[in-house]
Specification:
The protein is built from two helices and no strands. The protein has about 100 residues and is an all-alpha fold.
Length: about 100
Amino acid sequence: MAYDFERAIEKLRGKAAMVAKRYRIAVEQRDAAREEIKRLEDELSQKEREIKELKMKVEYLSVVTSARPSADEMKRSRAMLSELVREIDQCISDLQS
């Protein structure tokens, strides 16, 4: 009978050691996962800041592009202004006559 208890106790010790080993592994994996989560959150924050910065640059570039006319637009504007100046000159000469 004493032999059976010793054998049962040895089995329990072995199982307890195995459970303790699995627990340590699980804790290590959990800690590694937490570190990975922290790293990924930091990376995400950095990428979000970078995206925000790039969106602002795109907005600035689109504003600058729309504020700066193309060569064709400049030619059309000059032609229109020249025509308006001619019409104003004609109106002035008509008023003076």
